[in-house]
Structures are given as C-alpha cells and as structure tokens.
User: Fold this.
Amino acid sequence: MASLFGSVPVSAQMSSLVAATNRPPALNNGTYLYGESSQPQEVQQGYVLFEVKNSQVTGALFMPHSSFDCFHGTLNHTTLDLLVEDSYEAFSYPVSLDLHQYYALPQVDSAQQEMLAVCQDSLAQNQFQAIER
Assistant:
C-alpha cells in the first residue's frame, strides 16, 4: 500500500494524529476550563473550572444556571484527583476526572473567575478550621 507518509499506512498515521490531537497538553500553573460540550455555557452540560499551582488544584464543578461544588486536589498528568465539597450537604467525596473525556475551552469569563475565587476562599477557610480543631 502506497502512503503519503512514508512506509506507514495512511490509516495508521491518521489514527496516531487523531490520538495526539485529542490528548490534553501538559497543564502548567494557570486557570483552565473543561466541559462536556465544546461550547461554553451549554445548558445541562457539566464543566470543570480549576486553577493549577504546582500540581495542586482548586476549583468548581458546575452546570450553567445551576449551583456549583468546590473541590481541591492534585493534578497527575491529565487526571484530576479531587475531594469535592457538596454545596448542599455537609460532606465531601472523592472524584477522579480524566481530562481526555472533556473539551478544553479557551476562555474563562468574569463570572467563572468569581466562582473560582469563592471556592478558593471557601476551601482556605475550611482548611484553616480543620487545622484549628
């Protein structure tokens, strides 16, 4: 079989190209938004908003026009290992999110920045209270 990409069949080249483009890049320190939809603010779709600082993450899980749950945890390559604080109940639960399953969205709007700040403040207060006990 002749190939435009040398001796490797075109189908194999395309498969590896697709796999490479679907892989999230390594995440440096910064703020990120990922969604179940490639479009921001799509109703009934879940989103994960987070800030990375030295492989530590804080952020929020949310659906547009709904409540949000704050979390903290660690970034391990493209997996977020999180402890989520339920916004209605007084309990936390672990979640592991593989960012390969979400779309990276290019912009974080001011309302999302405010949501992130609320979570960072809330989690900082909770950690401080846990240390005092």
